[in-house]
Amino acid sequence: MLTVALPKGRIADDTLQLFKEVFGGDFKFEGRKLILESGNFRFLRVRNQDVPTYVYHQSADLGVVGLDVIEEKGLDVVRLLNLKGGYCKVAIGMQNGDELDYNKPNIKVATKMTNITEKFFAQKAISPEIIKLYGSIELAPLVGMADMIVDIVETGSTMRENDLKVVDTIMESTTHLIANRSSFLEKKSEILELYKKLDDAVKSGRRI
Ligand code: PRP
C-alpha cells in the first residue's frame, strides 16, 4: 500500500485521473472526505503547502506538489520526478515606473514565501525587511507597505492588472513527485514501479 498526499484542487483531480488511466480502478474523493482508499493506494487530500510536511513525517510515502512549495518548506524529501505541469515562476515584482536597485538601503519586501526570499537576498549579501503576507501580495507596493514583492507569477495577469512588472526571476517551478526517504528504501520496488509508469506518461506528453 502506498499513501500519496495530494493538494486539493486541480492537481488532485489531474493526478487521480492519471492514476485511473495508468492503474485502472476508481479514484475519486467523495464529498469532503480527506482520505480515499482504492486498490493499493491511499490518497490524502491536504493543503498545497502541507504536502511536503506529510511526506517528511512519513504520514504519506509520496506527494505531488510544486517545486516552489518544496523549496519554501525546505524539508528533506526525495525529488523523484518532474511532472512538468503547473509551470510558474517565483519572481520579484515592482510598480511600473520604479527602478530595481539591490543596493538601496532598507529594502522592504512583501511575500508569503519568506524562506525563498531570505535565501535569495542572502546570496546577494542583502538582508531586507521581509513582511509576511498570506495573499493578495500585489497590494503591498500599491499602498506603500513594500518596495517590492516576491510572488508566484503564472499568467502574469495579477501583476499586470495591478500596475506591477516582473523585475527579476528567482526560480521556475513545475509540479514534482516527491517521496519520503525511508519509504523510498522500505517500499522501493512499489515506488519504482509507480515512478516508471508516471515517467512514461510524462515522456508521452502527459503533464500534471
Ligand atoms: C497567486 C499568486 C499571484 C497569482 C499569480 O495567488 O500569489 O497573486 O496567483 O497568478 P497570475 O500570474 O496568473 O495572475 P492566488 O491566486 O493563489 O491567491 P492569493 O493572493 O490568495 O495567494
Describe this structure in words.
The chain is α/β, with parallel strands linked by helices and 208 residues long. The protein folds into 2 domains: 2-86 and 174-203, 3-Layer(aba) Sandwich (D-Maltodextrin-Binding Protein, domain 2); 88-172, 3-Layer(aba) Sandwich (D-Maltodextrin-Binding Protein, domain 2), CATH 3.40.190. Helices cover 33% and strands 30% of the residues. The protein has helices at residues 10-23, 51-56, 67-73, 114-123, 139-142, 157-161, 181-186, 188-203, and strands spanning 2-7, 35-38, 41-46, 62-66, 78-82, 88-95, 108-111, 129-132, 148-153, 164-173, 175-179. Strands 2-3-1-4-11-5 form a 6-stranded mixed β-sheet. Strands 8-7-9-6-10 form a 5-stranded mixed β-sheet. Strand 7 (108-111), helix 4 and strand 8 form a beta-alpha-beta unit. The protein is elongated and about 55 Å long. The model has no long low-confidence stretch (mean pLDDT 97). Residues 135-138, 151-158 line the site of 1-O-pyrophosphono-5-O-phosphono-alpha-D-ribofuranose. The site of 1-O-pyrophosphono-5-O-phosphono-alpha-D-ribofuranose (PRP) has 12 residues, from strand 9 and helix 6.
* Low-pLDDT stretches: none
* Computed CA radius of gyration, to the nearest angstrom: 19 Å
CATH C-level category of the largest domain: Alpha Beta
Query: How helix-rich are the residues, as a percent range?
Result: 25-40%
Overall 3D shape: elongated
What is the overall pLDDT average? Answer: 97
Order of helices and strands: EHEEHEHEEEHEHEHEEHH
CATH superfamily of the largest domain: Periplasmic binding protein-like II
Approximate strand percentage: 25-35%
Remind me, CATH topology of the largest domain? Answer: D-Maltodextrin-Binding Protein, domain 2
